[in-house]
Amino acid sequence: MSPLPPPQPLPESLWGDRWRFLTIAAQDLQTALTTLPQRYQFLPETLWPVNLGLAADLPIPGMVIYAGRQARFLGQWLSEQDPCSLTYIADDPRLSGGLVLKTGEMHRWIVATFADPEMATAAAVFHQRQRTAKGLHFLWVQPDDSGVTSTGVWLLQA
Asked: If we measure between CA atoms, which residue out of 129, 89, 138, 137 comes closest to residue 109?
């Protein structure tokens, strides 16, 4: 099998306004991710924490992108790309630390880069929680942080 090509920048037309890491207790994950109607979603039952044998109080890590007016376009693009996993890459000098989204069989996209030590620490915690949760994590796209609307959500496993 050939190595994966280097990650490509996420198309600028899809950049969100801002993003953040979020954790949701395993017992609350299904309710949290399915409460709001969403145009785009990938929530296979095989990835629900209970089906992976995860403890109810285990924090499941995720990333929320607040995409503003681009939320629908980002959600549609993600849906077409078939997201597989988000990975924190600490040692790639091109990224200065960053998050890479793997989609389909061979594509990788740079979702965020950061040199800020505080953000690098948060990303390392995200990565550790991901490992503790058997690779389970989520990607959530919302227009804003009002909690009233949601565009799409993907349950992923590294």
From this structure: 89
Rounded Cα gap, residues 116 and 21, in angstroms: 15
List pLDDT tens digits, range 51-74: 999 999 999 999 999 999 999 999
| Element spanning 49, H or E | helix 49-52
pTM: 0.91
Give the whole-angstrom CA distance, residue 2 versus residue 20.
33
User: Closest by alpha carbon to 109, among 8, 4, 3?
Assistant: 8
Closest by alpha carbon to 154, among 133, 135, 140, 134? 140
Beta strands in 39-135 (DSSP E): 40-42, 59-66, 83-89, 98-103, 107-113
3-state SS, residue 142: strand
Given CA atoms 2, 43, 119, 111 in this order, what sign does their dihedral have?
positive
Distances (CA, A) of 98 to 33, 43, 119: 25, 25, 9
Given a contact cutoff of 8 angstroms between Cβ atoms, the answer to whether 118 and 130 are in contact is no
